[in-house]
Amino acid sequence: MIRLGVPSKGRLMEQTFDWFADRGVRLSRSGSDREYAGQVEGAEGVSLVLLSAGEIPRELRAGRIELGVTGTDLIREKLAGWKSDIVEAVPMGFGHADLILAVPECWCDCENLDDLTSIARDFRAVHGFRLRIATKYHRLVRAWLAAHEVADYQLVDSQGATEGTVANQTAEAIADITSSGATLRANNLKILSEEPILRSQATLFANRAAMDPNMKRFLNQLGL
Amino acid sequence: MTLRCDKQTVGKRLLAAFREAGAEEVAPDILLPAESLLDLYGEDIRARAYVTSDPIRGEMMLRPDFTVPVVQAHMENGAEPARYCYLGEVFRKQDMGDTRPETPRDNEYLQAGFELFSHETGADAEVFALFYRLLSPYGARAETGDMGLLLDAVRGLPLPAPRRDALLHHIWRAGRFQQLLIRFSAETRPRDFPQSAASWTGLRSATEMQARIDRLQADAGSPPLPAVWTERLKRLFAVRAPASEAVVMLRELALEWPEIAGAVERIAIRFDKIARAGVAPEQVVFDASHGRTTMEYYDGFTFSFMAGDRGWPPIASGGRYDALTSVLGKGRRIPAVGGIIRPGLLAELEAA
């Protein structure tokens, strides 16, 4: 049996259902809207598991589901060494979001990461502590800043309303997922000119250990 | 698989050798206050420290390194000269990136260390010769460097102070250093700072921003650094040879670059003292870039010992960290040099 993990609500669920429907596999929630059980029609030996998108990486690695739909951002952030356990079966073409670094829009001397590096150095000298970057993507942001040799900063954890941390003076910059940038502008923030830290989209992932003939047959059926 | 008690045995043997060399044993706490100490480390260690919280003491971390707590204890109540030694675990998260390695690196390992606080000029040689004597039976290769040489070299460049300070600040980050050097070697175009209509937000003030803009505008008129200097820096960073050959190469460079002559002679004297302590200079490699990849608090002599398979971390490392003592001593400064050995790696070499 192939257990397919799909986000349990919202647009991500609907778009996932549409994506599979286009490939002849009908996924649906059984019973009422409140029940997290699902049905699969049009494919043999596949069952549907509805989960929070954030839990899908962990469940995939643990082998409690064999296939899962979630954002590349969550897999890369939450699973150190993900390539050893997980196969990226196919990017699904929706749920696009970029992980970006943003600073106050009023900083007219800050266009790119070089500026931020220099500002961080001045900031530390003036304030006696490192410039704070609020994020929940600690691993991705740290690895990216390390690759660009940025020093004099510190990450502060922010699990929600990250755009508000700058106005609240608990951070000087933020690193977060954005799709349209509207929330950033509303909070007087602007994106640095570098390429995003990560371009994320909804992706079908498979547990590497579950890549058996059954799985290959199902992926084949999906045109993969 | 090397047993924990075998690693302890090697560690205790090292500790005994350090005590014999005149060191007093100290045992810093394993749980250390996070906030004040973390700020002293470079991002590498900061990111890898296990941080936890205590309802009364606030943020605490599992000891990621011994040098800082040992220096702190000495600055509070030590007299000089002082020699300290210690043996205990350090804890560092090992993030493997996208692919899990076959044998993950340890996130908890023993360090046996020796730290010397002294104004004596032979301190570097004393510590290095002690480590060499303990590690040469393992076939370890010694590599050394000198951050003082590189810092003097940059200070000696004909650059306006803000440019020089930026280079000094990023000397440990090779890519960023190179990028700055390229920028300083070309004509700078004046830059526009288009005012934004957005309302001010965040802790950084408009005055701070203006100070940076003023600095950048003043900098735009600076003449480019003549190409001969980047060429010399390149030659300096590339010096890597057994000690006596390296000193000859450095002296040659110092003829065109008088600002490094003092540092070069200090290095020559250090190797003389190391030779007199019984270590043949041809056994010791001097690599001018060595210190750029070590801990950021080293600002003078640096050393590491390599052994075992390729890809192994150094089995021992250390160096001089005078500036750290002045940060922790709130202005009071004591010359200090020291290093650590990893007993776990020695135990693996013994078992092989």
TrEMBL record, chain A:
<comment type="pathway">
    <text>Amino-acid biosynthesis; L-histidine biosynthesis; L-histidine from 5-phospho-alpha-D-ribose 1-diphosphate: step 1/9.</text>
</comment>
<dbReference type="InterPro" id="IPR013820">
    <property type="entry name" value="ATP_PRibTrfase_cat"/>
</dbReference>
<protein>
    <recommendedName>
        <fullName>ATP phosphoribosyltransferase</fullName>
        <ecNumber>2.4.2.17</ecNumber>
    </recommendedName>
</protein>
<keyword id="KW-0028">Amino-acid biosynthesis</keyword>
<keyword id="KW-0328">Glycosyltransferase</keyword>
<comment type="function">
    <text>Catalyzes the condensation of ATP and 5-phosphoribose 1-diphosphate to form N'-(5'-phosphoribosyl)-ATP (PR-ATP). Has a crucial role in the pathway because the rate of histidine biosynthesis seems to be controlled primarily by regulation of HisG enzymatic activity.</text>
</comment>
<keyword id="KW-0808">Transferase</keyword>
<dbReference type="InterPro" id="IPR001348">
    <property type="entry name" value="ATP_PRibTrfase_HisG"/>
</dbReference>
<feature type="domain" description="ATP phosphoribosyltransferase catalytic">
    <location>
        <begin position="53"/>
        <end position="218"/>
    </location>
</feature>
<dbReference type="GO" id="GO:0005737">
    <property type="term" value="C:cytoplasm"/>
</dbReference>
<keyword id="KW-0368">Histidine biosynthesis</keyword>
<dbReference type="Pfam" id="PF01634">
    <property type="entry name" value="HisG"/>
</dbReference>
<dbReference type="GO" id="GO:0003879">
    <property type="term" value="F:ATP phosphoribosyltransferase activity"/>
</dbReference>
<dbReference type="GO" id="GO:0000105">
    <property type="term" value="P:L-histidine biosynthetic process"/>
</dbReference>
TrEMBL record, chain B:
<feature type="binding site">
    <location>
        <position position="92"/>
    </location>
    <ligand>
        <name>L-histidine</name>
    </ligand>
</feature>
<feature type="binding site">
    <location>
        <position position="292"/>
    </location>
    <ligand>
        <name>L-histidine</name>
    </ligand>
</feature>
<protein>
    <submittedName>
        <fullName>ATP phosphoribosyltransferase regulatory subunit</fullName>
    </submittedName>
</protein>
<dbReference type="InterPro" id="IPR045864">
    <property type="entry name" value="aa-tRNA-synth_II/BPL/LPL"/>
</dbReference>
<keyword id="KW-0328">Glycosyltransferase</keyword>
<dbReference type="GO" id="GO:0016757">
    <property type="term" value="F:glycosyltransferase activity"/>
</dbReference>
<dbReference type="GO" id="GO:0005737">
    <property type="term" value="C:cytoplasm"/>
</dbReference>
<feature type="binding site">
    <location>
        <begin position="297"/>
        <end position="298"/>
    </location>
    <ligand>
        <name>L-histidine</name>
    </ligand>
</feature>
<dbReference type="GO" id="GO:0004821">
    <property type="term" value="F:histidine-tRNA ligase activity"/>
</dbReference>
<keyword id="KW-0808">Transferase</keyword>
<dbReference type="Pfam" id="PF13393">
    <property type="entry name" value="tRNA-synt_His"/>
</dbReference>
<dbReference type="InterPro" id="IPR004516">
    <property type="entry name" value="HisRS/HisZ"/>
</dbReference>
<feature type="binding site">
    <location>
        <position position="115"/>
    </location>
    <ligand>
        <name>L-histidine</name>
    </ligand>
</feature>
<feature type="binding site">
    <location>
        <position position="111"/>
    </location>
    <ligand>
        <name>L-histidine</name>
    </ligand>
</feature>
<feature type="domain" description="Class II Histidinyl-tRNA synthetase (HisRS)-like catalytic core">
    <location>
        <begin position="9"/>
        <end position="338"/>
    </location>
</feature>
<dbReference type="GO" id="GO:0006427">
    <property type="term" value="P:histidyl-tRNA aminoacylation"/>
</dbReference>
<feature type="binding site">
    <location>
        <begin position="65"/>
        <end position="67"/>
    </location>
    <ligand>
        <name>L-histidine</name>
    </ligand>
</feature>
<dbReference type="InterPro" id="IPR041715">
    <property type="entry name" value="HisRS-like_core"/>
</dbReference>
